[in-house]
Design a protein that fits this description.
The protein has about 700 residues and is an alpha/beta fold. It has 24 helices and 17 strands. Strands 3, 4, 5, 12, 13, 14, 15, 16 and 17 form a nine-stranded mixed β-sheet that branches. It has a six-stranded parallel β-sheet with strand order 8-9-7-6-10-11, sandwiched between helices. A two-stranded antiparallel sheet has the order 1-2. α7 (about 220-240) packs across α9. It is globular. The chain binds nicotinamide-adenine-dinucleotide. Nicotinamide-adenine-dinucleotide (NAD) binds near residues 289, 293 and 440. Nicotinamide-adenine-dinucleotide (NAD) binds near residues 127, 360, 441 and 590.
Length: about 700
């Protein structure tokens, strides 16, 4: 007899029988075959490791099956153990649970693995090509069973997808503590990940994938929108065609802000922005790549920001998925037909998103050959994972690449590096004619430099800025603005609409008395939340994101808590954020790339952050190696908090969100970032008990003279 959803969860891994084998579904977007990295002895170990999830009586049947998976896919996913029920975020009351908090975590896990949301759902990969939630389906089943049976006096401990077990704790402790990919630093090269993952002992949790906080591409649409909008403003402030009066004078007076961003320059530009805020970027051309998990947000963001965008995507399945979801307006498989369409769209000056279904290098080279003026350029192929399917080299079909990757990894690596050299050469030609190119946090600059592309200036720095150096760092993170998000556990769209409304009210109230330094950020976010419902951003659970500072996040969360208490909201709400935030992530080429005191290669901030969140009321916390820019390149952490209208929830909101934002502001202020200094002094003035060490400013001339 078929089990119900609840029965199947409670059964965990059945002890006495095998579930029915699941057919391999060719309609699903599957992870590429991983490289064959294990020695013969290590393969024995991988199988032994996999079988320890199952009673001995089943081993004779499972061993050959798992051996075949390892051979065919390079990993043991245990496909047979995929559940038979449909995976999606059900309303919280539908889960078998003794703890509401645990039920909310189940809902978040279900949402991550929803086929509409996850990139390779059957391989438990949520986004970014290798961003895993679990390593195999046995781990999934055990975790769901633990969550279904645990109480609020227990904590589930997660080691890279593997549930170590339930440990006694107390109601204010996190229900789940997640670590992903934490390894001894000397063993943090990409091949180490391949080996540990194939052995079944570690995983790449990306950011929100391994921390149950992915909400589909909406999560990134907002960040991408404000990035594209502010990049466009930079170009407008620079280009006399677009600006007039004060803004132009300031832009002219600036040194080349494309290359030398400093907090001071960015503030000058920000001051100039009110004049240009109303200017429209209509007819601006934005060219980029990737219609995958997060990169799929680019065309939508381009439309919201009001530009013409062209996004290359080599995988027709990924392109088609975004087209069907309405995230991109037009798919074009041929450059001959796309080029005149681009010219027409630019002349039309109406926002539209075009996709080229092909290799981005072919697109860049053609644009340069045709001498088409590109205003903004970027890239979101998964270059944090260049050798295992994150970046497909020009000159090879998708299938040829996949085959080469598995059968001849050395040749594949060479092809990727040659492709990157051509990629950069074409971008350089367009940049020489005025295109503003920025790295979008996918390790494009880093991997291109490693490939020997012409991407470095004489002093060894990159020719192009990262979006954090120029935009997100000085304008957002330093002031505490980051990607706050929430999910309505009733899964009722009416609840989401009410939370949008409450957030808008709160932000409107705060904006009325906000200082000039953050007025623009507040205004952009109010506009975003006003439009959010209309833009139909939900894919999967009833979730919303907006950028807010500490005051905004706290006041919005308290307003939700009140609405849950008095019944206006029909269920609890999960609060969280992307790891890509003020305090959560130490990443020298991304989140902390605008830290200039030499500390950007340290990871104290991210580690402190997750520890502090853990004892201030987070329902779950996570800390990861890797994420965004690659294994060994970043430490990032996040949290989830279930609020249920109680006084305990209000206390957790006040205490934990405060730390979660101000930890990073304090560090950024110590690094001498002006915006952060302003923000932390403002916070100290209104918060008794906060006493942050502030830097004295040394005179560099004095130092240079002393050292001369
Ligand atoms: N900084 C940020 O806020 C931010 C936001 C989003 C993504 N990222 C980074 O961007 C990257 C992409 O993320 P994702 O979740 O979309 O990954 P993804 O793997 O889901 O998508 C990348 C897409 O690029 C396509 N692609 C690869 N090589 C190509 C080529 N040569 N030409 C055309 N298309 C090609 C792939 O087919 C894939 O669909 C990651 O490295 C991620 O960390 C950063």
């Amino acid at each position: 007899m078929n089990q119900t959803f609840k029965e199947e969860i409670l059964a965990g891994i059945p002890a006495d029988k095998l579930p029915e084998a699941k057919p391999y579904d060719p309609e699903i977007n599957h992870a590429p075959k991983r490289k064959d990295i294990l020695s013969a002895d290590e393969k024995v170990l991988a199988l032994k490791n996999a079988l320890r999830y199952f009673p001995e009586a089943l081993h004779a049947q499972l061993a050959p099956e798992f051996a075949a998976e390892l051979k065919t896919y390079g990993r043991i996913y245990m496909y047979r153990y995929r559940p038979s029920y449909k995976i999606y975020a059900r309303p919280i009351d539908e889960y078998p649970a003794r703890s509401k908090q645990a039920a909310a975590i189940m809902a978040m896990i279900q949402n991550n693995l929803d086929e509409r949301v996850a990139q390779h759902p059957h391989e438990l990969i949520i986004y970014g090509g290798n961003g895993a939630i679990f390593q195999n389906w046995a781990q999934y089943r055990l975790v769901m069973q633990y969550l279904a049976t645990m109480t609020d006096e227990q904590t589930l401990v997660m080691y890279s997808g593997h549930p170590l077990g339930l440990f006694p704790s107390h109601k204010d402790a996190p229900r789940v503590i997640v670590t992903n990919g934490m390894v001894i630093p000397n063993y943090s090269k990409p091949d180490d990940w391949e080996r540990f993952n194939a052995l079944g002992v570690s995983q790449y949790g990306q950011m929100t994938a391994g921390s149950y906080m992915y909400i589909g591409p909406q999560g990134i649409v907002h960040g991408t929108t404000i990035t594209v909008m502010n990049a466009a403003r930079k170009v407008m402030a620079k280009d006399s065609q677009y600006v007039s009066g004060r803004a132009k004078k300031i832009a002219d007076a600036l040194p080349d802000t494309y290359r030398e961003s400093s907090a001071k320059n960015d503030k000058k530009i920000a001051d100039a922005l009110p004049d240009t805020h109303c200017e429209s970027p209509a007819g601006m051309l934005f060219v980029t790549a990737g219609l995958g998990g997060m990169s799929g947000a680019q065309p939508k963001a381009g439309n919201i920001a009001g530009v013409v965008s062209v996004t290359a995507e080599i995988n027709p399945k990924a392109a088609e998925k975004r087209f069907q979801q309405g995230w991109v307006d037009e798919l074009h498989p041929s450059l001959d037909e796309l080029i005149p369409r681009i010219r027409l769209a630019v002349a039309d000056k109406k926002p539209v998103s075009l996709a080229y279904v092909g290799n981005v290098v072919d697109l860049w080279e053609r644009l340069a050959d045709e001498d088409i003026h590109v205003d903004l350029g970027s890239d979101q192929t998964s270059l944090h994972n260049p050798w295992a399917g994150g970046y497909y080299p020009v000159g090879y079909s998708l299938e040829e690449s996949k085959r080469m990757m598995a059968e001849n990894p050395a040749a594949f690596k060479e092809a990727v590096q040659a492709s990157l050299r051509r990629h950069v050469a074409a971008i350089n030609r367009l940049a020489a004619k005025g295109m503003y190119f920025f790295d979008y946090g996918n390790a494009f600059l880093l991997e291109s430099s490693r490939a020997g592309a012409d991407i470095l200036r004489e002093d060894g720095s990159f020719r192009y800025p990262s979006y954090v150096q120029d935009i997100m760092g000085p304008m957002y993170f330093d002031y505490g603005f980051g990607p706050f998000r929430w999910v309505c556990m009733s899964e009722d769209p009416e609840d989401l609409a009410l939370t949008d409304h409450l957030a808008m009210e709160v932000l409107g109230r705060i904006a009325a008395s906000a200082p000039a330094e953050i007025a623009g950020q507040m205004r952009d976010n109010i506009r975003w939340i006003e439009e959010a419902g209309r833009n139909k951003l939900v894919v999967g659970s009833q979730a919303r994101i907006l950028y807010a500072d500490c005051e905004g996040r706290t006041q919005i969360a308290l307003a939700f808590n009140e609405a849950i208490r008095d019944g206006r909201l029909k269920g609890p709400v999960v609060l969280g954020r992307d790891h890509h935030d003020v305090s959560g992530t130490d990443s020298p080429f991304r989140e902390t790339s605008n830290i200039y005191d030499g500390s950007r290669f340290t990871a104290d901030m991210a580690v402190q952050n997750v520890i502090g969140d853990g004892f201030r009321g987070a329902t779950w916390v996570s800390i990861h190696n890797g994420g965004g820019v690659g294994w060994g390149e970043v430490i990032n952490g996040g949290f989830g908090m279930v609020i249920d209208g109680s006084e305990d929830s209000a206390r957790h909101i006040r205490e934990m969100l405060f730390w979660d934002v101000n930890n990073g502001i304090a560090r950024r202020s110590w690094a001498r970032n002006e915006g952060a200094r302003f923000a932390i002094e403002r916070e100290m003035a209104r918060t008794p008990g906060l006493k942050v060490t502030l830097p004295h400013q040394a005179d560099e001339n004095l130092i240079r003279k002393t050292l001369a």
